Amino acid sequence: MSAKEKGGFEDMAKADRARYEREMKTYIPPKGETKKFKDPNAPKRPPLAFFLSVLNIAQKSKNILAYPLVMLQRN
User: Fold this and answer.
1) Of 27, 28, 41, 55, which is the most buried if we count CB atoms within 10 A?
2) Does residue 40 lie within any of the structural domains?
3) Sign of the C-alpha dihedral, residues 51, 55, 60, 66?
4) Statement: the pTM of the whole predicted model exceeds 0.70
5) Does residue 37 fall inside a structural domain?
């Protein structure tokens, strides 16, 4: 692209920049709600039924095995 062709686009960019700055002088941002912070003292949510059942199954299988699963993996 030659300098002459670029000149037209640069002029359009300068005009658009001036328009943007003119509009931003009168711009007032909307009053939005501030972010609600999490209360550190709030109670935790109850566990899901799926995780309760998985923990139950894991506990049963742990009681059935006479030795830890780590020993099974090493042999």
Assistant:
1) 55
2) no
3) positive
4) no
5) no
